């Protein structure tokens, strides 16, 4: 809002053409609930269509419980990622309505009224990438997307990928998850004409460098249409894919 | 296609239920034209909706001319990126129907019948990022997207960004281009609820490390909904954005 | 002191115009107490206004006890950082007058006569950065500064920062503590006109690279007026901020 | 400003207790002038006491001329850094009132009425660091600070530093500029009790790594009270030092 | 297969000159068995002469058991690498016909009818590299190669290497395994005229950087005829060496 | 040769059972010719089957001429790599019997009597990798190998690779040359069962990091049977491939 | 030895002018004792004046016992470094004549007849560097050098260093051990005119990068006369210093 | 000097037992001559036996002339390193008594009365390392050492090294200079029992990383007795070697 627009709004208020509350709406009414250790963005779900998400790593079970309670009034679905088994057990004692999934390390509460739309394909190179893939899958599902899982189709046996190509091509968005050298991304990127989101994983040894090698591979891909998120960041990929998928699907409805 | 499906197709051919040509279509009929120094993917535009693009860097003017000629029959629009002024001059002598733009360093032929759809916002942090931004803008336009340019709104004077926020929020996809430390991406990512594609640039000095610093910044963004392409890769960002924008817009039509 | 000045002092001694003790003062009378494992700088508090500080990491409880005892005659306040709970317990058995704080991992003895002056704002991006923030806060308080804590105002929900901007702007110095990509620093730097000291934290995953990513972000900030200390170094930031704050405040008195 | 405060202001406007213009002031009236290639922050000098500064690198002479003209109405002093000789020559033809300094590569217009206050010491390890030091010195002077230059006192001949220690200790802030291994910073940091701002330079060869080595050295300094800015960033150090120096000095007046 | 060849095959099927099954063979009949967590390449042993190998790291004992069972029908020899003692114990309870070797951390089933051919020399610089060397040795043996072990002949006592040179020179392929600085590779490379495959190990400390130092050393070797595999990748080196050795040896038969 | 063997040889000489010359042969008769600036290994061609090769970079035209002259008596074929056009022109004035190739930047003299054996396939991802590929091709040919060139078959259009797969599979050894992200290597490695030698190139921009990205990709390949040489090192790959190819082919003769 | 010299020796043997044993001496009589897991260089002590040393890390207690037993006949003093307490306990049960030191983590047997000569000064920046310093000290003493320890004299309190300067200057060689930023090395290097050997330590946090920062600092030192060994490599520094010290001292005798 | 000693000296002056001048000597009489751009350490040659040296890089011809003139009264020999041909030409016009050497890029004035003592061997791996080697050689000679050059004996043809081993072993100190992977250092270190100083060079390509690869190789050497200086730092190695060589040789006289 530029200076002119601001003065216009304020003049409207002075002229009683606008109530203070309506003006507040125009001037930005983002709000938050303040805990000791966090400021929770309570109007986020209405504003963006996405629930505020809890990044569990580095938070105590007690803090997670507190945040979930504060959130529960303003959002119908809840997602906490990176929650280890032992921490989850503590949280579940207090909040038995949450569901814990040990592979993806997520705690969720699903909004059952939400309609699942469109389709996101989640493709992994190997069996070891499944943990990250499931973080993506659970996230995408909680955000109301249909998910198709295609696991263990890395380029060392590329015929396995080709056998699944039709399924992959039907998705609105494709998430490709790979460790080692991450070459699967470029191959998929060259074969589909929908957006591909690449997730490097820290799977591998030696010069994999904790995932930096597939990260660099993916950023330098000779195939167009690929963008990249952080190492092991299944959540981030799914959030992105969900935005794109829902925009496409909802226009359709 | 799995073994069963393959046998099915072949049996249909044996049973004359399918002509060899139709079967070839099902079994993948990707083709290419072979030059001495390149293999041009001539059916690409029909297949994916995107013309094959020439990455000009490291190719001679003569090679570019040869490739454009080979492409011209099969695609209506042509885009060559990373073409320096002197090389472009040589190409234009042979192919005067191309248009050269010195800021974005692109040679283009535009398909005038193509309808521009949707809207992509291209946002830069500084004046020095404009070169990369224009590579993105020209690419997006040649691929049939409407483009809105919002330049020089970096976080050192964040009120300039807020003054343009409404315009940015109207786009289907936002491309954020920033050098130095790249913080603009996270701020935009926290304020819009459409997909954000981040392009780090090599603008800066010292520990900018040729763009690695904003690249890492963008990958680690605390805002969700951001994905990243390679350093200075305006083309890649626009290709990605175009895929998303056209999927959203075309569903709508 | 150059050669001429040195000769002048020595001639004054020869001429009895100066006593040896006074000359010793002019020629540098820094002294230290020698333990087996350390050389304690006992005149530091008088000289610089700051107590010598114990960096607890890598020292045994026994060594910490020894050093505190050696210090106690010459300084009124004591600060030991990076002391884990178990080590602290051992120390407290011997030195019950110290106070342990488990979040900041500090052992302190406060000089109650010291007047707190000025104001240092400590701002964090997330909840996970609080540990480093508290090391800074405790350090600043032991050095006689007023401290204002503003936690969890990262740029993913930038309205939380704006809501606190007035408080931040009232401080003489602002410490900004952020992990992930560290973009908060640039935003704060663009909004306040007092010195900003940035502390990158090792909070994040994948390409955060143990804090190197926010460190690089902060060093490359497009906002002016920002300087940076080492990763997770809350103590260093507070020491710095204290120097600046007290110089400003004391001139005022 | 939180929701409550916002409503309060707007109610005051509705109640005619506040004029729209006065409310606009409270709600943030930052403004800028829009050029084709830049958005100039014209109220910056009034707001922060510092003129907007032009980072010359990557801008054409023509763009610099345009920006200076746009600035000239709103600010009395002008500073452009990183301007090479040839570019400066072009600018000076259009704007002969500017002054060019070839060592620091700055174009300046000095506000002669501004009173110089306090004192900033600029210390270099070697002769080769002088270029960065002069960028810092010119910047500090244009911002109204007294500057003392102490060059070539690196630790290879540490007696040269001790000979200048009294002068250094009289400054409110010390800027230490060093390439090679950057050890001078720690030594100075251990000897003065005012804030030290360290600037690593890209001077050196081999494993200096373009300044990354002294940058890391300075960040890891065992002396307290040191903060660091980007490699070769004389401007940034001076901006920082100026903020601190003026706050100290002005309180005094 | 190009478009023309594809049509040719399909026409032959249409003309009954080729059965669908035979055509499927020509068009690629790679197949796989699908488990929940893996897709096993069951025709691999026939196709390439090498059994599919299980990379044990990151797989559960249960998953390994499942995969071995699925493999057992289609391949006579089995190799699982990177299996820790405790995991191996679990597997052996279910599959007592496998053999576990604690140094190389491998589980194997050997095809007793396979004839061992040729000779691969495995040379280590130190005693600490033996673990990686044994992974290579077991792999090479399971693939039907004769193996000669020459351990602890690093360049610090180069006469130990010369004493073994005749034995090394008799091998078809030489695998050199070294940590620390990896110089042994260059020395061996300069003394033998058969292919040398270098394996850097993560043995060393400080600036060994987890094996990156010997990796770089080996890639930059001034001796010709050396190629390199990943850090600690004894399996990869042996696979490579086996391919070469068997090609040489089998031609001979 | 151990101490016992050494004494045995010497006793035989003492006993006249062995002539001094024969003993010299057993004790190693490597020799070299000493120039001012180089020590040329003149018996190398007889010993290893490979001519000594001149690495032209950093040598003057005069030095290259001197070395070629010194070599010419002892070897029938000559190869100098990394010779720029201007340097080559100077050399050719003195040594008109050499042949210069501008793409591969090599000077060669071919031994026409040498029989070309076997087959090495040289595969590139893009047109820009051809320079490195030709260094490999010329080297392989001078060493007596048949070479098949398959250029521009990168994974962005993977059908181009499949169209050439039969040709690639017929080679004894495959050299894969790729810049950008280097994914082609893994795909080829998964499709052929002969040794693959990977050459990363410095083609690409931004986070390609001068070839470090494809280098890391190739080292971490999930396909087995791949080994790697240094960035842009076409010569090294060809030397390696030649060793393997000739060993296989010669056994056959 | 060149070809001519070799023939000369062999002719002398043939002519009975030289016995085979004497010739063997001239041709190199290095020998070793072969264990399963190691090749021990048994004539090393006589040849170089230094006992073969056991690098304990990665060796089992049993292997260490075996190696010590094999060594004991040929060398009077024994040194094993990097031996943890628990492993040492096991070794001492078998070999009670060894002495274990828990700080330096060494097992030693001292040759009591060896005369200690010269003087090596070992200087540390902090208390935390003492562990590395003691590895150096024990090594130097076992090799027959006098050692002077000067600990905790880092540049944060540089007067502590000056107080000890006379002692440091009396040593033939100075070992400087520092973590954090390692600046102490440059200061000492500028003040003494005997060789300085620098040892970076992994003491520090954040951007210390496991010792890479002080390593780079030391390599880039602006003071002359400094050379560097690997991170935490107290043994290597002492070995080096001992070579120099003994050469100086012994010439004197 | 500690507090007690300081008081003792000053009391002696007060008691007239010591003249002020004599006391000044005891208290440190380091002095320097101050130019505009440098502070020249004029008593250095007397104090340390080594002339102050001019690092030419980054200094203008005019500055070099000024420094040489200022030095000439206090030192008999002069050395300027890193002086390019064109700059040298300018200097020589003013100072024709200096001698320029184009390979080592040094300007020198030799003290003809200085006796050359001892012997330093300078060994290079390749022809391309000679430039760095000559910087070392000229430096060592100007400092009064005998120098033996052994060039182009890299490990790719290790027999060339063995042929020169006797000469190398006769030196007091050995400087080993190598680029590429730097393996020569470890080999020499394992064969000589005098101190070895390693100089990595930036010779090589691809993953040589500007000399970082041989630098890391040398630091991680498995041979003892090696220390390392900065990349391409021939001067530093020679300064170091000279210190050691002269200490050994002079004791002998």
From TrEMBL, chains A, B, C, D, E, F, G, H:
Gene Ontology MF annotations: hydrolase activity
Pfam families cross-referenced by the UniProt entry: AIRC
Top-rank lineage group of the source organism: Bacteria
Family matches, as InterPro entries: P2CMN_synthase_LarB (IPR039476), PurE_dom (IPR000031)
GO biological process: one example: 'de novo' IMP biosynthetic process
Residues of the PurE domain: 118-250
Protein name as annotated: NCAIR mutase (PurE)-related protein
SMART domains in UniProt: AIRC (SM01001)
Family matches, as NCBIfam families: LarB
Organism annotation: Liquorilactobacillus uvarum DSM 19971
């Amino acid at each position: 809002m530029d200076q002119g627009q601001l003065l216009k709004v304020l003049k409207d208020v002075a002229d009683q053409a606008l109530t203070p509350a309506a003006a507040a709406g125009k001037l930005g009414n983002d709000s938050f609930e303040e805990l000791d250790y966090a400021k929770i963005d309570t109007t986020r779900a209405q504003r963006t269509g996405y629930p505020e998400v809890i990044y569990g790593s580095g938070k105590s079970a007690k803090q997670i419980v507190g945040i979930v309670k504060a959130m529960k009034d303003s959002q119908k679905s809840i997602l906490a990622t990176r929650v280890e088994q032992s921490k989850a057990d503590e949280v579940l004692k207090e909040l038995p309505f949450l569901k814990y999934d040990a592979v993806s390390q997520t705690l969720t509460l699903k909004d059952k009224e939400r309609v699942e739309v469109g389709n996101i394909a989640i493709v992994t190179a190997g069996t070891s990438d499944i943990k990250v893939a499931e973080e993506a899958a659970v996230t995408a599902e909680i955000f109301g997307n249909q998910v198709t899982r295609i696991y263990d189709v890395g380029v060392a046996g590329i015929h396995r990928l080709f056998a699944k190509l039709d399924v992959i091509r039907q998705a609105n968005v494709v998430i490709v998850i790979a460790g080692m050298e991450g070459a699967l991304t470029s191959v998929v990127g060259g074969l589909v004409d929908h957006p591909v989101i690449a997730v490097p994983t820290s799977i591998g040894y030696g010069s994999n460098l904790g995932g930096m090698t597939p990260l660099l591979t993916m950023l330098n891909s000779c195939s167009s249409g690929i963008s990249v998120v952080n190492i092991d960041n299944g959540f981030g990929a799914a959030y992105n894919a969900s935005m794109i998928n829902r925009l496409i699907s909802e226009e359709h409805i």
